[in-house]
Amino acid sequence: MGAEKVVIDTDPATGYALRDVDDGLALAYLLALPDEFDVLGIVETSSIQ
After folding, report:
1. Helix (H, G, I), strand (E, B), or coil: what is residue 17?
2. Closest CA to 14 of 32, 27, 5, 2
3. Cα–Cα distance measured from residue 47 to residue 49, given in angstroms and rounded to the nearest whole number
4. If DSSP codes are grouped into helix, strand and coil, which group holds residue 20?
5. Are the CB atoms for 12 and 45 separated by under 8 Å?
6. How far is 24 from 5, CA to CA, in rounded Å?
7. pLDDT value of residue 29
8. What is the pLDDT of residues 1-48, one digit of tens each?
9. CB neighbours of 45 closer than 8 A, spacing ≥ 6?
10. Torsion, Cα of 25, 26, 27, 33 (10° steps)
11. Which of 26, 27, 35, 47 has a CB 3.0–4.6 Å from the CB of 11, allowing a cystine?
12. In this structure, are residues 46 and 14 in contact, taking their beta carbons and an 8 Å threshold?
């Protein structure tokens, strides 16, 4: 069985004070495991105001 194909939809707040970094950590995790996940694309939106 091959790597799971994924498209990541994210609103990363990594680098902003007092914001969750969960999306950034998930992205790093998925990219660090190329044998398990084939990242086909990353869609980024900004929710920081």
Report:
1. coil
2. 27
3. 6
4. coil
5. no
6. 18
7. 93
8. 799 999 988 876 767 777 777 888 888 999 999 999 999 999 887 665
9. 9, 10, 11
10. 110
11. 47
12. no
Which SS3 state, helix, strand or coil, does residue 42 take? strand
Q: Is 5 exposed, middle or buried (0-12, 13-18, 19+ CB in 10 A)?
A: exposed
Q: How do the domains of the chain map onto residue ranges?
A: 4-44
Virtual torsion, Cα 10, 14, 17, 22, nearest 10 deg: 60
* Distance, CA of 31 to CA of 49 (rounded, Å): 27
Compute the distance between CA of residue 36 and CA of residue 21 in angstroms, rounded to an integer. 22
What is the rounded CA–CA span in Å between residue 38 and residue 2? 9
Query: Which pLDDT belongs to residue 49?
Result: 57
- The CA distance from 14 to 49, in Å, is 14
